[in-house]
Amino acid sequence: MDQRMDCIKTILLTHSDRINSVAISPDDTLLASGSGDQTIKLWRLPDGELLKTLTGHSGPVLSVAISPDNTLLASGSGDKTIKLWHLPDGGLLKTLSGHSYYVSSVAISPDGSLLASGSGDKSVKLWRHSDGELLKTLTGHSAYVTSVAFSPDGTLMASASSDETIKLWRLPDGELLKTLTGHSSAVNAVAISPDGTLLASGSADSTIKLWRLPDGELLTTLARHSLAVNSVAISPDGTRLVSGSGDKTFRLWRIPDGELLQTVTAHCELVISVAISPDGTWFASASGDKTIRLWLLPHGNQIANLMDPACEEILQCDDFRYPESACRCNIVMTCTCDQICSCDQVCTCNEVCTSDSSSSCGGTYWYPN
Q1: Which pLDDT score is estimated for 125?
Q2: Which run of H or E residues covers position 299?
């Protein structure tokens, strides 16, 4: 038999399903990604090495957040739970149950004492970070809660909902202070500026609105996306806003005046999540195309792909010493948006690698070198 007939080409991407959320650690050394494939991946920065894949959720991972002291990762899932993981090793510490529908958003307070979770059950829950005790359930939204965000001083929390509103809550007592209205469709994302004076909201009505805090006055509406705005992030110096949209683009805006600085077609499918690094020099975008891309600020030039686009040819080698062995050859390839990929390296059985030596297969492609 011609052994080359057994050769199989596979495409290895970041995740095997859409990436719903990315978070960058406060010390800029780690990026976490949560996916519809029910996993969380931890990536080392700045070299982009995949450190660990966390498993345990039984539904899509919809949101991830990293604590201010870099020791904890929280994940919210379609399985209705929140999981707390130890960093950097990724050990599972605790599973928090209490929501009756999927957990769409998680956020950790600036002092690390509180965890907030927003859910499809229309509620926001506040949990004590240290032991996972449920402290309070906030109700008032009339449809599922899509996003939660803390103010920098930890005295205010914003929640966004598909009921087309944003609610501002006082902390720690959870009193409802104000309901912001103005969007004409579901509000998908909220972010609060580092100085606590500005709130940005992204909506399925394809607009971004900027609101003054704490009074909630609408300052301006940014309307240049052609489809839903899924994610917004504000730079640490408070001068830039990044928005990711279903139109496959991210846009860079100057704030507070809202001038559009840059539009980039960033992905092959919708941009679901954006996150800016703590030093404000770059940001990450995650997409339904299963990739994470990294971009420079302030101009939006691409610097990296956190993906594993190795073209792996697997050839079963008839070697009695290693009955399950295979020769694996890898070459970085270029994929177009219709996932047509080229791989011109041919496997031979000149060397045998056993099934437990997978470290030599695949790898992270770090553009451009």
Answers
A1: 98
A2: none
- 101-116: b (≥16 Cβ within 10 Å) or e: ebbbbbbbbbeebbbb
Q: 112: left (phi > 0), else alpha (psi -120 to 50), else beta?
A: left
Q: Which among 69, 147, 73, 152 is positioned nearest to 109, based on CA atoms?
A: 152
DSSP 8-state symbol, 189: E
pLDDT above 90 for 70: yes
- 170 pLDDT higher than 90: yes
**Residue 193: burial class (beta carbons within 10 Å; 0-12, 13-18, 19+):** buried
**Structure token pair of residue 179:** 């309901």
Instruction: Provide the residue range defining the domain that includes 277.
Output: 19-306
| Triad 236, 221, 234: Cα angle to 5° | 10
In a shared domain, residues 238 and 336:
no
* 81-86: strand order across its sheet: 61-66, 72-77, 81-86, 92-97
276 shares its domain with 218:
yes
The DSSP code sequence of 236-279 is TTSSEEEEEETTSEEEEEETTTTEEEEEEE--SS-EEEEEE-TT
Tens of pLDDT along 194-205? 999 999 999 999
Least confident of 168-182, 205-219, 321-335, 344-358: 344-358
Residue 368 within any structural domain of the chain: no
Q: Which of 233, 236, 205 is nearest to 221 (CA)?
A: 205
What pLDDT is stored for residue 76 in this prediction?
98
Q: Is residue 369 part of a domain?
A: no
Same domain, 51 and 175: yes
The DSSP secondary-structure symbol of 100 reads: S
110 cis-preceded (ω within 30 degrees of 0): no
In the DSSP assignment, the letter for residue 362 is -
Judgement on whether residues 246 and 343 belong to the same structural domain of the protein: no
